[in-house]
Amino acid sequence: MDITGYIVFMFILIAFCLVFIIRRYAQKTTPFYVYPFMSLGFFLPFATVALIPLDVEETVSRNDDESAPSYFYTVWSVVFWTQMSLTWLVLPTVQEFANTGEFTMVGRIKAALRRHAKFYGLMVTVGLLFVLYLVIFQDLHGDALTGFVIACANAWGLFLFLMFFAFGLVDV
Prior knowledge:
- The chain contains five helices and no strands.
- By secondary structure, the protein is mainly alpha-helical.
- The model has no long low-confidence stretch (mean pLDDT 85).
């Protein structure tokens, strides 16, 4: 099967999986405007898994003397930044929009954005103060600071995994 056929097949398979998952697990009272965001939120991780074999095959078949960047770099960049923006900006705002008690559309949007601005402002302030403390009092600079930030990001991911995994075990 060629690359185009594989991509079409995988996207059709992912679309059927999305339809099944959303029809099976979405509540009947879910507002209509949530479905596109929910579909995109499910589609991108599934597409990431589907693109890995293509990236590996392209990397293995590449000659050592080829220095041209792979087109997968662009694909991975688009997928990564789309997922990051969905995770940290769009989906939480849509969630707050759906949960807010305002009556008008503009009021709901303002309330959701205001709540996220407070949350992210607090988190950025605390994070910067902590990093500033480490730089001043613990003499943490350059590569050590970069490594520390990466370790914190990994610890946060593991913490979320453990919390969601434990919730899933207890809830089921």
